[in-house]
Design brief:
The protein is of the alpha+beta class. The chain is about 15% helix and about 25% strand. The chain has helices at about 5-20, 105-110, 150-155, 155-165, 200-215, 250, 275-290, 320-330; strands at about 40-45, 50-55, 60, 65, 130-140, 175-180, 185, 225-230, 240-245, 260-265, 335-340, 345-350, 365-370, 370-380, 395-400, 410-415, 420-425, 435, 445, 450-455, 460-465. The strands form five sheets. Strands 5, 6, 7, 8, 9 and 10 form a six-stranded mixed beta sheet that branches. Strands 11-13-14-15-16 form a five-stranded mixed beta sheet, with helices on one face. Strands 1, 2, 3 and 4 form a four-stranded antiparallel beta sheet that branches. Strand 1 (about 40-45) and strand 2 (about 50-55) form a beta hairpin. The longest helix has 16 residues, at about 200-215. The radius of gyration is 27 Å and the shape is flat. The model is unreliable at about 5-30 and about 70-80 (pLDDT under 50).
């Protein structure tokens, strides 16, 4: 978990004028019930549209209808949007194995619990490709659960399922079972307190106390992941509490009915609509299956974090980077173009937007050494993004450093440094502002000996790679 006018007025005026007949443009001010002269004549006054109607033998203005202001919708790009077509690369790509950069980090060699590069963690191969999650409400005698907890839940389980189906290309599915009533835990709520995410021994104690009760009172048959919900207004969990299959508490305490891989519970940090539960659950389950944390959980966040949900579940894009999809095996070899640098002079590649389910290359990888690569992919806002008007789309260029691991900046966005920091989820005042790291039509960026230019952006992004 990462802890971290005028145009509208013109539009409304234009809308108002479009509703007024030519004969009514200079009409006097009106009020409901006052007399008018022309049946069915319409006049806009004080943000209401009044219609002249017949009442008995008189013509009067009706009560009026409020003129609705337009709702901004995200644009597909901040630049010109081309009606372009997909074309095969001008150069033949190298064998995909050349771009499977092997992780060479200290953390990876010591533990291997989370992967920033190849090979992916071995335990993932033993996991089922359909994961069953449970949403279980737990409360206490001194902290009683609210009756409307399912309203808080909404359709977020479905969003988790849709997200994993999307980013995995249908290779991983998530189903759910939802508790219909609160499970009362013994003792006082304070006995279960966890002061911050990753706090020990409190995290282990929480699981050891909760799981035996839930195992008896809830049918956990077939469940691999538990997401607990706490009573509204609680303060015993400040940030969150979660655990993973490679930690001792999950190995030592488990269900009598099934093997629980992990659990999670969103705390006060996630109160409100700005930080939804679903992205937190998806982020933590990403670690369960082996995806590394992009950047530090508590250190200074980088711009790449908003482009990978494994860096920030609070970011505006809430996407999984192409590199992480490649490493886990969720991009087919045909969707990854490996750029041979030995004979490279200039090449042009069409990139299908990463989030779209259609054939074609979604990511280009330029291996620059045995431990590094440049990665290029096409991005579009999706249904999982924050509701931000004009959230940019374009080409994301970033680098991979195999010597770095989870909780480090192993991928880094490359973009013009003069970009203003003006992107964040609306209403989230506590979240940092980030720069638009996407390249748009006409933009170029030099990374090492290579220049990446966007020559067309629309149905696909057409990218030119030039070796200096």
């Amino acid at each position: 978990m990462r802890l971290k006018g005028n145009a509208v007025k013109v539009f409304v005026l234009a809308l108002a004028l479009s509703l007024i007949p030519a004969t009514a443009v200079s009409a006097p001010k009106v009020t409901s019930g006052s007399t008018c002269k022309v049946l069915n004549q319409r006049v806009v006054h004080l943000n209401k549209t009044y219609t002249c109607v017949k009442s008995g033998k008189k013509l009067v203005w009706n009560k009026g209808v409020t003129v609705k202001k337009p709702t901004p919708t995200p644009s597909t790009s901040v630049s010109n949007f081309d009606n372009n077509v997909y074309m095969e690369p001008k150069m033949t790509g190298s064998p995909i194995e050349k771009c499977m950069i092997k992780e060479n980090s200290i953390e990876g060699s010591k533990y291997g619990n989370l992967a920033s590069g190849f090979p992916f963690v071995s335990r993932f191969a033993s996991y089922p490709k359909e994961i069953k999650m449970a949403y279980i409400p737990i409360d206490f005698s001194d902290l009683v659960g609210d009756a409307n907890y399912k309203t808080r839940l909404g359709d977020q389980p479905k969003t988790v399922s849709d997200w994993f189906s999307s980013v995995s290309g249908g290779k991983l599915s998530v189903s759910w079972t939802v508790g219909n009533e609160w499970i009362r835990l013994p003792g006082a709520s304070a006995d279960y307190a966890v002061p911050f995410s990753g706090s020990y021994p409190e995290t282990a104690n929480f699981w050891k106390k909760v799981l035996p009760i839930v195992d008896v009172k809830f049918d956990l048959t077939g469940v691999q992941v538990i997401n607990f919900v706490l009573p509204s207004g609680q303060s015993i969990i400040k940030e969150s509490v979660q655990s993973f299959p490679f930690l001792d508490e999950m190995k030592n305490v488990n269900s009598s009915k099934t093997n629980i891989l992990s659990f999670a519970a969103a705390g006060v940090y996630f109160d409100g609509k700005i930080r939804p539960y679903w992205s937190y659950w998806a982020h933590e389950f990403g670690h369960v299956i082996g995806l590394a944390h992009v950047g530090s959980s508590r250190g200074q966040s980088q711009t790449i974090n908003i482009h990978d949900l494994m860096g920030s579940q609070d970011g505006p894009y809430r996407e999984l980077s192409g590199w992480m999809r490649f490493v886990i095996g969720w991009l087919d070899d045909s969707q990854v173009y490996c750029q041979d640098v030995d004979n490279l002079n200039t090449n042009e590649i069409s990139l299908v937007p990463l989030s779209e389910q259609k054939p074609g290359i979604k990511m280009a990888v330029i291996p620059t050494s045995v431990d590094s690569a440049i990665i290029i992919e096409s991005r579009r806002p999706t249904k999982f993004s924050c509701e931000i008007p004009n959230l940019p789309s374009g080409v994301l260029v970033y680098t991979y450093d195999a010597k770095l691991a989870s909780q480090e900046d192993f991928i880094t966005a490359q973009y013009p440094l003069d970009r203003p920091k003006n992107i964040k989820c609306i209403g989230n005042d506590k979240m940092e502002n980030y720069s638009d790291a996407l390249l748009h039509k006409g933009d170029s960026i030099q990374v090492g000996n290579y220049v990446i230019s966007v020559i067309s952006s629309g149905n696909v992004d057409q990218v030119r790679i030039t070796k200096k």
